[in-house]
Amino acid sequence: MSSLPACPKCQSAYTYEDGTQWVCPECGHEWSAQASDAAPADEVRVIKDAVGNVLQDGDTVTVIKDLKIKGSSLVVKVGTKVKNIRLADGDHDIDCKIDGIGAMGLKSEFVKKL
């Protein structure tokens, strides 16, 4: 009996290999064989600010560089305090609300934890 992994979507044991992909015949889910060999997907992602401090949800940060807002003439000035941040996945890893501007995403490399 082969040692193919169970389907990550429905946990079916009837998976089979199709080239470089593994396929579940019960739910139709396909995934890469290389992705399963890599590190587990449940790793905790650590987001750090510009000086290396670890950020968490609810932290207060300050902006360390003037940031132009795309599609607008507004600018987030250096020293702007941003309260109650939320960490997010993606290129902009901080979701927040900035007074006078509104909701936006920031990159952690442009902020410093207070």
TrEMBL record:
SUPFAM superfamilies: Prokaryotic SH3-related domain, Zinc beta-ribbon
Cross-referenced InterPro entries: YjdM, YjdM_C, YjdM_N
Ranges for domain Protein YjdM C-terminal: 47-113
Pfam families named among the record's database cross-references: YjdM, Zn_Ribbon_YjdM
Spans traversing the lipid bilayer: none
Domain Protein YjdM N-terminal: 3-32
Entry's family note: Belongs to the YjdM family.
Designated name of the protein: Zinc ribbon domain-containing protein YjdM
Lineage: Bacteria, Pseudomonadati, Pseudomonadota, Betaproteobacteria, Burkholderiales
